[in-house]
Amino acid sequence: MPSPRLHGKVAIITGGGSGFGAGIVQKFHAEGCRILIWDINPAPAHALAASLNQPSSPSSSSSSSSCSVFIGDVSKAADWDAALAQCLHAFGTLDIVVNNAGVVHVARPSEEVPEDEVDRMWRVNVKPLYHSARAVVPYFRREGRGGVVVNLSSVSAPRPRPRLVWYAASKGAVTAATRGLAAEYAADKIRYNCIQPVLGETAMVAPVLGGTDTPEGRAAPLAGIPLGRMSTPRDIANAACFLASDEAEFLTGVCLDVDGGRSLM
Questions:
Q1: What's the pLDDT tens digit per position in 139-151?
Q2: Is 130 a catalytic site residue?
Q3: Measured distance between the N- and C-terminal CA atoms of the chain, rounded to whole angstroms
Q4: Which of 130, 139, 167, 185 is an active site residue?
């Protein structure tokens, strides 16, 4: 039997307690990765870690946990330093960072979006790329083995839509930063790639639809997805796993549309 794709790897996954993040955590764990689950909400992160740290059978046991939990704010530099320190204490190394945590504003005319919501999206969606680079690039360089960063952007970066312009702008910054960082750190064997999902089956559906999730509200975005459905955490997790794995060792600066063909419309 072949080894799991991420056997022996260690990852920090932000926003890992729910939505796409939880899907990524579950996939990485299944592929042999040890994970620091980072979330701002303790309950879902601890529940997910507890479920994954259970022995695979009643007769089996493990001397160490495969998942650790860090509760913190991705927009704060000090929390990135603390998360890296906890990861190294728990697992002794770091190979992969997944910048998944993100927020969206309620869809509305662009001139009506509150300024604090715009600021929040830039703080949560964009600034962690800066903080993560500042924290982990020096570590990757010291270790000399390179590293992998996977950022979560959105298909709204290349295909911005009315009423979600400021969200699209923040995700456009993620895409641009990913490509720039890929070029800058390639010589250090640090690969940067991003995923650009279409609207997914997560808690973001309601705000994207204007505040309420209804079948009628879903009809319009679904009509623009040729494969006829929203993305799922499993879809995004599979893409993230591939980009983080050694199978993708020659890929950097890739912005992968996981969108059911939405970017073609």
A1: 999 999 999 999 9
A2: no
A3: 41
A4: 167
